[in-house]
């Protein structure tokens, strides 16, 4: 049984149908942040992707800058900045800038980059991305604390680098993407960061939750620190209605398009029996399409993996479109 209050939020990858106006899609994503703020939700996250069509949001920082002007209290997270694609000084400058614009409401989410096609377009080797994530976090955390950094690597050369504008708050919250590999948990412990679990109910991702959390706790303990489960975010698809049949009818058309896109991003998912039909996904507990009781049951499953995890993020996957 939970002993801590669960926060609620929204994660926008985004998922925009290919035949939809990008202008209208971005406007909807911004209005959704305003609505979430009015409802009293705790967090709202925007992703970064450069290929694939559906997830056409190249800059979570720009989305946050716009959303900050329409919202008042809700925290705004980068979900995530793909650090290997950016000079770390430029990333630190942008993050500090939008934290000022939002009066300290930014959560800096960082990751290695999800889509191999993004790395390919930039001429990068995706196998180097985890090392670059570690290097980038090392530099950015120092810059955000006001340090001057002189450091050279294979992908940046910084000389007396520093941020002219520092974050609004002295202690900006940082989150590291954590999906299947243990790397996210280890880095979260290393940089005293939270964990953004974007595959928390997906095949492999659910099983990895408790292991990655244990790795984070063990690594933190080695340095005399402790991890707080309240800083873990678990993201999943949830669509509820009065009855399961009604919920199924509402999402059946839109989810087929979404499912086809997701499967094309991974050979593993393409061959997975759970990703063949909507019914298979529900049966495998990868998504919730049903009643409020079904959503509560999913939260309980996650809580068994990581007791008292901090925030449930509902993915805005446009299932009913």
TrEMBL record:
One of its GO terms (cellular component) is cytosol. Keywords: Flavoprotein, Monooxygenase, Oxidoreductase. Residues 8-302 form the Luciferase-like domain. Signal peptide: none annotated. PANTHER family: BLL0895 PROTEIN, LUCIFERASE-LIKE MONOOXYGENASE. Belongs to the bacterial luciferase oxidoreductase family. This is LLM class flavin-dependent oxidoreductase. It comes from Sphingomonas paeninsulae. The lineage of its organism: Bacteria, Pseudomonadati, Pseudomonadota, Alphaproteobacteria, Sphingomonadales.
């Amino acid at each position: 049984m939970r002993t801590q209050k669960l926060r609620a939020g929204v994660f926008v990858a985004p998922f925009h149908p290919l035949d939809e106006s990008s202008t209208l899609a971005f406007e909807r994503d911004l209005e959704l942040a305003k609505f979430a703020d009015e409802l009293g939700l705790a967090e709202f996250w925007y992703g970064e992707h450069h290929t694939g069509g559906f997830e056409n949001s190249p800059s979570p920082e720009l989305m946050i800058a716009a959303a900050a002007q329409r919202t008042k209290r809700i925290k705004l997270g980068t979900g995530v900045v793909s650090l290997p694609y950016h000079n770390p000084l430029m990333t630190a400058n942008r993050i500090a800038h939008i934290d000022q614009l939002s009066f300290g409401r930014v959560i800096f989410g960082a990751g290695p980059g999800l889509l191999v096609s993004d790395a390919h377009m930039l001429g990068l080797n995706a196998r180097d991305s985890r090392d670059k994530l570690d290097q980038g976090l090392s530099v950015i955390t120092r810059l955000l604390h006001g340090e001057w950094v002189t450091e050279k690597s294979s992908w940046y050369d910084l000389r007396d680098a520093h941020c002219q504008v520092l974050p609004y708050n002295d202690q900006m919250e940082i989150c590291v993407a954590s999906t299947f590999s243990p790397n996210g948990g280890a880095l979260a412990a290393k940089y005293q960061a939270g964990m953004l679990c974007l595959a928390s109910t997906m095949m492999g991702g659910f099983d990895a939750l408790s292991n990655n959390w244990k790795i984070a706790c063990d690594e933190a303990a080695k340095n005399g620190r402790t991890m707080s489960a309240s800083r873990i975010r678990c993201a999943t698809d949830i669509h509820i209605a009065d009855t399961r049949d009604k919920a199924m009818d509402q999402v059946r058309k839109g989810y087929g398009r979404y499912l086809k896109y997701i499967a094309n991003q991974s050979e593993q998912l393409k061959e997975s029996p759970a990703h063949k039909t909507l019914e298979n996904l529900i049966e495998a507990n990868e998504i919730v399409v049903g009643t409020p009781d079904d959503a509560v049951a999913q939260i309980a499953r996650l809580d068994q993996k990581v007791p008292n995890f901090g925030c449930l993020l509902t993915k805005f996957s446009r299932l009913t479109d």
